[in-house]
Amino acid sequence: MAHESKSYEERHESAAETFRNFSPGADPEAVARNFAERLGPLGSMAFDVVGAMWSRPQLNRRDRSLLVISTLAAQARENELVAHTRNGLQHGLTTEEVEEIVLHVAAYAGYPAAMASSRRIDTALREWLKVENLPVRKAAVRKSDAERDRDAAEVLARLGGGLTSPMHSAEGEVGVISSRWVFGEIWTRPQLAPRDRSISTLSILISLGALEELPFYAEVGRRSGLTDEEILEICNHLTLYAGAPKAAQAMQVLRAR
After folding, report:
1. In terms of residue numbers, what domain contains 44?
2. Which of 153, 169, 188 is the last residue of a domain?
3. pTM of this prediction?
4. Angle of helix 228-241 relative to helix 61-74, nearest 10 degrees?
5. Which SS3 state, helix, strand or coil, does residue 140 take?
């Protein structure tokens, strides 16, 4: 398969444009020199390779921020979350959407990761809003189990495309909890659009190596508005944020279906 070939200078300029967007007013070349002087090859490649990835047209910057915040939160990579939350807000995510990503992470990566990430994200939100204390948040809508069962069935019928999630079909209480909580509550919330939730879910699954669910959630993503090219680009981006082995394995699973 032939791939586009660029000179180093072309790739470096793409990366520089990314860092102009990340840090308005900063000199990208000064940033590149600082990275290299402090971190050597790790720093120079962080500028050139990561920067060039963010300039690819297959996903916009808002989508890329959404998937990176989801990935870092799922992995509890707290130190990176403040900067990437700030980038996400610059790229068009709202504070409500960023907060909702954390709840989505709780469902797919567990509460410990979500709680740890929430503390760092709150730091970024306070800096962004220039406040000492964030506004008081509202609790989730209270639903009976019958209401959760009804809403889960509607979500799965609308977005599942006739497929069954292994998580949803699990035996015993795991299946019941997954259906009622994940699909009957979280996926019904309007704070993130289904397409956004699909980006977040695919990113979390790939970053954690939970590949059995990928075909189901890829179909959910298509029915939510993602194109096949965008789904594959999520894998491409995660080469840098979850590691090449996990991204390659995910790509194999997606191309096999």
Report:
1. 13-55
2. 188
3. 0.93
4. 50
5. coil
- The answer for residues whose C-beta is within 8 angstroms of residue 114's C-beta and 6 or more apart is 73, 102, 103, 105, 106
Count of domains forming the chain: 2
Residue 102, Cα to own-chain centre: how many angstroms? 10
Residue 249 lies in a domain: no
pLDDT in tens, the chain (257 residues): 557 788 999 989 999 999 998 888 889 999 999 999 999 999 999 899 988 999 999 999 999 999 999 999 999 888 899 999 999 999 999 999 999 999 999 999 999 999 999 999 999 999 999 999 999 999 999 999 999 999 999 999 998 877 777 777 766 888 888 889 999 999 999 999 999 999 999 999 999 999 999 999 999 999 999 999 999 999 999 999 999 999 999 999 998 86
**Spatial separation of the C-alpha atoms in residues 90 and 98, rounded to whole Å:** 12
Residue 1 lies in a domain: no
246 inside domain: no
7 belongs to a structural domain: no
Sequence-ordered list of residues with C-beta below 8 angstroms from that of 142, at least 6 positions apart, any chain: none
